[in-house]
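ARCHIVE RECORD
Type: protein–small molecule complex
Small molecule: pyridoxal-5'-phosphate
Source of inputs: curated submission
Record status: active
Notes field left blank by submitter.
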Amino acid sequence: MSTTKFLLDESRMPRHWYNIAADLPAPLPPPLHPGTLQPIGPADLAPLFPMELILQEVSAEREVPIPEPVREVFRLWRPSPLVRAHRLEKALGTPAKIYYKYEGVSPAGSHKPNTAVPQAWYNAQAGVKKLTTETGAGQWGSALAFAGALFGVDVKIFQVRISYDQKPYRRALMETYGATCIASPSEQTNAGRAVLAQRADHPGSLGIAISEAVEVAATNPDTNYALGSVLNHVLMHQTVIGQEALLQLEMAGDDPDVIVGCTGGGSNFAGIAFPFLGLQLRGGRKRRIVAVEPAACPSLTRGRYAYDFGDTGHLTPLVKMHTLGSTFTPPGFHAGGLRYHGMAPLVSHLTQLGLIEPTAYQQNECFAAGVLFARSEGIVPAPEANHAVKGAIVEALRCKAEGRGETILFNLCGHGHFDMSAYSNYHAGKLVDQPYDERELAMALAGLPSVPA
Ligand SMILES: Cc1ncc(COP(=O)(O)O)c(C=O)c1O
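STRUCTURE (tokenized, with ligand):
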């Protein structure tokens, strides 16, 4: 057996983020003001974000330097390992080589601290003392709570109700880092109260939790908002993953033919894929780039590419993305981080351009993939990450059927140590592959804002 782990020295940790906006073959449609339908400017975002992050959001620079204090924190867990999944390959009997980049080594257990740390740092630099945010899986909330603790920023987190109930220990982790965690929809905001008035036992959604967090930030001058995915700067922060993977695959003497990531809002997927896609856009080799989403919340495979609100309460700008409609409430499946009605505008745009292949799987087949992974590689993946594991296994089995020794790289974006009740339900045969409600989808799509082409 050849080498298993490919480890980079700390000195080789990336010094800049990669901004794919510099290499896009067609420009990204701009976010619009919902009232005027005109492109928004930095001033429109200033109540929510510090100017450094707003400038990153619209930057056209290919390389954006990572501040040294942020790199210092990253050294706690970065560079993360790249692992050759020898035992999974053997279990599948595939001639393919499978590599995974393991982001579960971060303190919060996923890729989310890669953006939580710079977001908290830029806010602290701007003198902001309080941040609000949403969390679906609890991973993003934990990550921002951790980052807030490091830079002296108070963090208030609206956790999607169903995830709040499914994962009490995620809340305990956020509280351990000093954050406050509230089940969403809540009585604390107009957006939350409006939803509860219609349905008192509403399971919540990321779209609703975003509305609550944005409302608190927009109505409190001392409070900013932080988003764990979707926005350009968040995706850019995650590109440390793919930049490291490029160097590690060079060490391994390999070059991926297929890159796989799971997509909720698109950030971990962009993190692993964009540095490789950037090489291709600058004239390099073409690779297949596969995005895996849940069949119960299939924004990329079933959504419409249209301007829509980023939240359910309609407090955000309009962004052009693949969307299921901002009022769509996905069924309560266990990959809470993937229960978002939209997709990052950059991932949507690149999908429209034919540069990304979207796929969707049900949760039971994803858990089966995660269990096979755990039994061969040892790591128990987060339910979200199981979608990437499933996607990689499908590719490896295709290679087996075709007798091709391709190289597959996937992002194992987090561990599932706080998700064991979901695994218990899976083992007990209690996980249901819920289809989404077609009528609700049709209604949510009918409610899309009308924006002249
Ligand atoms: C482990 C994990 N993976 C994936 C996601 C989905 O987010 P994104 O698509 O932005 O990576 C989440 C979101 O909470 C998550 O916690």
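CURATOR ANNOTATION: The mean pLDDT is 97.
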